[in-house]
Specification:
The chain is mostly helical. It has 2 domains: 33 residues, no CATH class; 50 residues. The chain has 2 helices and 2 strands; from the N terminus they run ββαα. Strands 1-2 form a two-stranded antiparallel ribbon. A hairpin with a 5-residue loop joins β1 and β2. The longest helix has 44 residues. The protein is elongated, with a radius of gyration of 26 Å. The termini are far apart.
């Protein structure tokens, strides 16, 4: 990507993780331009529809696994709390 030399040219990210060029009247810093170029180079570009489908599938699996892990953790915490409460109640019983 060539960095615009017009004053105030800046690059922002939109919701689709793509870069958009916005123009105003301020010169862009060369270091910032280099950072932006490096960031663009790091962005993974999927080349085929099958790769995009696999990426979406991985994301879905990741979300599902995360939700399951959170649910199991909550259930375990609930169980541990109930055990602690039962122990405390037992300690307070009469002899």
């Amino acid at each position: 990507m060539s960095v615009p030399t017009r004053p105030g040219a800046g690059i922002t990210e939109d919701s689709n993780q793509e870069f958009c060029i916005t123009l105003s009247y301020k010169k862009i810093n060369p270091k910032r331009a280099a950072r932006i170029a490096a960031k663009e180079a790091r962005v993974a570009k999927l080349s085929t529809a099958s790769q995009e489908a696999l990426a979406r599938q991985r994301d879905d699996l990741k979300k599902t696994a995360s939700a399951n892990k959170k649910r199991e953790k909550d259930e375990h915490e609930k169980y541990v709390r109930s055990v602690r409460r039962a122990k405390a109640k037992e300690k307070h019983k009469g002899h």
